[in-house]
Here is the input.
Amino acid sequence: MHDDFYETNKALSEYLLFHYGKADEVLPWGFGPSNSLNYPVRCITECIDAKQIPNNARALDLGCAVGRSTFELARHCDESIGIDLSDGFINAAKQLQKTGEIDYSFIIEGEIGQPATAKIPNEIDRSRVSFEQGDAMFLRKGLGVFNVVSMINLIDRLPCPKKCLEQLSSLIYTGGQLIIASPSTWLEDYTPKTEWLGGRSSSDQSFQTLDKIREILDPSFELNGKWDIPFLIREHSRKYQWSVAMATRWTCLLYTSPSPRDKRQSRMPSSA
Here is the structure.
């Protein structure tokens, strides 16, 4: 598996730019898909039903990367927790929570870089936000229950996405919201083919990601929104990844008490 990529300086630089970069830093041209910028923010603002969020709400952002969507959730919730497997991503997110900014550089060409500063908008209350390293398939005990759970570009990077989805009804209050966004880029580098939620076919059937998500979440969740959300990840000034995520919003119909903790090994590094 290629989890190590997300611990590289290259990944950290690309994701800080992806989450916090200014428009002219990400796309320094007079043309291009400008509607694909600010993806982590748009996944929240376009998909969440803010009117249905109660007072004193709690949010959980699984696979938060460097945290922009976690901060955006803090506009709507009194507590917003971001969890990611990458130690480097979480350390950067913690610095952003503590100081409101972090310096980094992004690639122009080859070894030539451009300095930049990622900043949290002043109107976001950073005291509502916290970050911790964790495995989305093996969440720690004591996290509690949430009114909003978001999973942005996560499920197709998990070894067993089904396991992650199966625990959600014990994490979300009845009436709470689940936001899932993914470009459905299923690769054996990250997920064994037997665990893909979509993109597989056999002699008698084929299925896509939404079909399998619906099957796993039924009957605890009901689909009540679906969007196609483009996003743009810059590698250098002349190379980009342009994708379109399928974003869905689900309402939890029935909170269920958590089952006994799974004893299988998580992907978290040993503390020894």
Remarks:
- Residues 87-99 form the longest helix (13 residues).
- Residues 75 and 123 are 9 Å apart (CA to CA).
- The chain has a mean pLDDT of 94.
- DSSP finds seven helices and eleven strands in the chain.
